[in-house]
Amino acid sequence: MAEEQVDIAIVGAGFAGMYMLHRARGMGLTAVVFETGDGVGGTWYWNRYPGARCDVESMEYSYQFDDALQQDWSWSERYAAQPEILRYANHVADQFDLKRDIRFETKVTAAHFDATTGRWQVTTDQGDTVAATHLVMATGCLSSANVPHFQGLEDFAGDWYHTGRWPKDGVDFTGKRVAVIGTGSSAIQSIPVIARQAAHLTVFQRTPNYAVPAHNHPVDPERETWFKANYKDLREKAKEGRSGQLYSVRDLPWGSEPLEAAEAEFAKRWEIGGFCYLGAYADLLVNKEGNEVAAEFVRAKIRETVNDPATADLLCPTSVIGCKRLCVDIGYFETYNRDNVSLVDISKAPIERLTETGLITGGKAYDFDAIVFATGFDAMTGSLNKIDIRGRSGLPLTEKWEAGPRTYLGLTTVGFPNLFLITGPGSPSVLTNMLPTIEQHVDYVSDIIEHLRRHGQSTIEPEQDAEDAWVDHVNAIAGGTLYPSCNSWYLGANVPGKPRVFMPYPGFPAYVKKCREIAAAGYEGFRLE
Ligand code: FAD
Ligand code: NAP
After folding, report:
1. Nearest ligand, measured from the Cα of 124
2. Which residues on neighbouring strands pair with residue 161, listed in sequence order?
3. Paired residues of 160 in beta bridges
4. Among 244, 275, 299, 408, which is disulfide-ready with 467 (CB 3.0 to 4.6 Å)?
5. Whose CA is nearest to atom 45 of ligand 2?
6. Do the beta carbons of residue 273 and residue 241 sit within 8 Å?
């Protein structure tokens, strides 16, 4: 049988893979998408845990590439819940007839660059082998679930779940004794909902987290009309924000106002809800003193909300606020006032092992009917490293990235021609509203492919110097902020043995400007052949 040949192979059918497929078709290219799941939506296909919803307002957390799409679709809430976002992903897939080129329930296991043909040989667990001129990894930054290797997991006789691999039919916790391990965003969203169902909920916390209120509500029809009438301008304005969002970041540095004015500003932003809290001053992620005041304001809110002072103390984070992605909550801290909820601090006594009936920590045994691992992801590199990706001379990507990921613009990496990473390490990705940054990346990759075709060129690969300089540049920018000061997944600190490298690029507008300059200079830093 003749080998299947395509212009572009795309791995992943989340928002990135779907838009890449649409752009590829628009350029008249043949494309195939491989997706492990049996549907589109990526994050929103896998993360069906109770309470899952976006932390960027839905009017912004949506595609903007097609005006009719953004005019037609109506979001029901300020922060839409997972089922609605998944419906939206399916709506887009149907409207643009994407599913016919997506092979579902098909995991890419290997992708090898063949230097003689200049093509990528892509292999799947379903026996596909496809030769592709370009390979686009739309595998997601937060798609490789991190289930810690607890001793005795196989002995546990109850049910266990990971938030990022939630059963499609949902889980009924009614009357059950439930454990949640972790207190990141997934836990903070799911704990209030699980607590309302379970007979008893015990939360195991290693590190407390900052959360600001969502003040979620139905979308006001007048605001929706206004938003839609001004969508074009609003989307452009959002791109000027450091995280690609519309919320206001004041130009003022910390210290430019008296303390009372600062506290009034934090209080005002707390009432608005969401990420705008950290926009009170331009430099809250640089200035330690200002950051501490912002953090203490949140701690005071926690103490005010949680009745039991000892529990409140445990819930108060001590790290820099914003060092991990800020959580946006709906009734999280209030949940600890319920009689059926308890908090166990495991910061000094980690979970020792799971048992048939539960788990042991600090020498004490706890019994459960169900355990929820809200333990996050092997972020940014996890899904890429699970695929046997080999570039020129058979070099495995995992080997090249042994000491941490190295890319040019977070998009490409030396030794791997025509391989594109959507929102890869070294791009703003997870520090932003990810839909606009996904679109920016897909558009940039599409422009590169168009450029190659127009100039009769077949491959693009970064120069070593350009990649080295980019890695240094990302490190220098991150090093000038407070981001590296805590054990975040941005640094890979949540996965034992993972190299500690700050992976995302802080600052969306500066990044886009740099991408534009590079393109205008004939793709400076890239070798085109
Ligand atoms: P994903 O949606 O992760 O899709 C990647 C797809 O690739 C997956 O479907 C996966 O199955 C598939 N895949 C991976 N490896 C393979 C393989 N080897 N073979 C075949 N298929 C493969 N960002 C925001 O900006 N705002 C938010 O409010 C927000 N909320 C979030 C909530 C949760 C619970 C999580 C986990 C993340 C959230 N994010 C949010 C980040 C979110 O991941 C992005 O916004 C966006 O959905 C990523 O889209 P993507 O297509 O790049 O990746
Ligand atoms: P996370 O932020 O990495 O949180 C994981 C939690 O599990 C942390 O509290 C962590 O503790 C704990 N943990 C991990 N391993 C553990 C172990 N071995 N023992 C005990 N505790 C352990 O993961 P997440 O909550 O899934 O969120 C990941 C990212 O996805 C977010 O930052 C956000 O970008 C996105 N997200 C967004 C939303 C939203 O609001 N829209 C919701 C969910 C996720 P430590 O802190 O001590 O490591």
Report:
1. 1
2. 372
3. 371
4. 408
5. 207
6. no
The predicted-structure confidence for 84-103, as pLDDT tens digits, reads as follows 999 999 999 999 999 999 99
Mean pLDDT of the 324-351 span: 97
Give ∠ CA 486-492-493 in degrees, rounded to 5. 45
Report the predicted TM-score, pTM, of the whole model to 2 decimal places.
Answer: 0.98
Q: Cα(461) to centroid of ligand 2, in Å?
A: 34
Residue 390: helix, strand or coil by DSSP? strand
* CA–CA gap between residue 399 and residue 403 (Å, rounded): 8
Question: At which residue do the structure tokens 């490789």 appear?
Answer: 144
Q: How far apart are CA 435 and CA 422, in angstroms?
A: 11
3 — pLDDT class (breaks 50, 70, 90): confident
CATH number for the region 4-142+379-528 comes to 3.50.50.60
CB–CB of 361/352 below 8 Å?
yes
What average pLDDT does this structure show over 298-327?
98
Using a pLDDT cut of 90, give the percent of the chain over it. Answer: 99
The residue-averaged pLDDT of 302-317 equals 98
User: What whole-number distance in Å separates Cα of residue 335 and Cα of residue 163?
Assistant: 19
Q: From the CB of 140, is ligand 1 less than 6 Å away?
A: yes
Q: How far apart are CA 456 and CA 340, in angstroms?
A: 67
**Domain locations in the chain as residue ranges:** 4-142+379-528
**Distance in Å, CA 61 to ligand 1 centroid:** 13
For residue 1, name the pLDDT band (cuts at 50, 70, 90).
Answer: low
Rounded CA-CA distance 133/31 in Å is 10
